[in-house]
Every structure is written in C-alpha cells, then in structure tokens.
Design brief:
single chain, seven-stranded mixed β-sheet, 21% helix
Length: 160
C-alpha cells in the first residue's frame, strides 16, 4: 500500500462577530448516470495537498491554502491528523494510506477564489462559509472533525 503525507488548513476570519472558514469546491466530475443531466452535488472540502520535498507540514499547509484559495494565513495551532485509506480512481487503482496534518490558521490577506487558472483543475471555486455550519457542509468525515475542533478551540480561546 502506498503512503501519502499531506497538510491543510482550517482558515478562519472573524467578520461582524462571526467566524467564517475558507473552503474549496471540487470540480464536478461526470454525472453518475449519463442519461440524466442533473448537476452533481458540489463537494466542499478544506484546502490541502502533498508535502513537497524540503517542506514541513505547516509550510505545506500555508502553501496549499494560498494556491487553492488565493489567501494568505498565519498559524494559530495544529488541530490534529486525519488518517484514511482511499483508492486512486484516476490512475492505477492503488490503495493509498493517507495522513493529513491540519492547522488552524488565521486569515491575513488576499481575495478568496483569486487563484491561478491552472489550479481550476483542482478547485472549481473557493469561498467563505460560516464556521459553525462547516461540520455539516464539508464532504469528508476527517475534515468535519477538524472544523469542529477549530470551532471548539476558538470558543475556548477568546483572545484569538
């Protein structure tokens, strides 16, 4: 089994007394049933990606956030690791054991969804969503947990 090590971020911003989180929407794949034209439900997830050679996990998380959302962020705390197995559907069908280190990050600058055209193969769009809604909106269990941890951390640390 192949192993992959990635990193990502829960980027938060306080606007008008509410916490908002940066999320990315994946590009829509082909319809599950080609005879129907119904749009597939958008898949919302956290920005994340593989750690490049010479990078540490935090550096990778900050880079991935910048590349996939168009914004820059500063670290607050590591939230934890999400571990899971998936099967590569786009190439060799290999099973992959993946570990993703997630960080709670504070928005610093930039405009959400201002990303390179080349990134559109990975990200249909980036947007702000209410952090309190994120555990319901995100597609993947491990990411739902990280959004919940971020919310709990912010509730416990008013100084952030």
């Amino acid at each position: 089994m192949v192993r992959e090590i990635s990193a990502g971020g829960v980027v938060v911003r306080n606007k008008d007394g509410s916490w908002w989180m940066a999320a990315i929407e994946l590009p829509a794949g082909p319809p599950a049933d080609p005879t129907k034209r119904a749009k597939p439900k958008p898949v919302l997830c956290l920005p994340k990606g593989l750690i490049d050679p010479g990078e540490n996990a935090l550096e990778a998380a900050l880079r991935e956030v910048r590349e996939e959302t168009g914004i820059t962020a500063a670290p607050i705390v590591k939230l934890g690791d999400s571990k899971y197995v998936y099967v590569r559907s786009w190439s060799d069908g290999e099973r992959v054991f993946k570990i993703v280190s997630f960080y709670l990050l504070r928005y610093e600058s930039g405009r959400i969804d201002h990303i390179a055209d080349a990134m559109r193969i990975e990200v249909a769009r980036a947007k702000w969503v209410p952090l309190e809604d994120a555990p319901k909106l995100l597609a993947y269990g491990g990411e739902k947990q990280m959004a919940l941890k971020a919310l709990q951390y912010l509730e416990a640390h008013a100084e952030v």
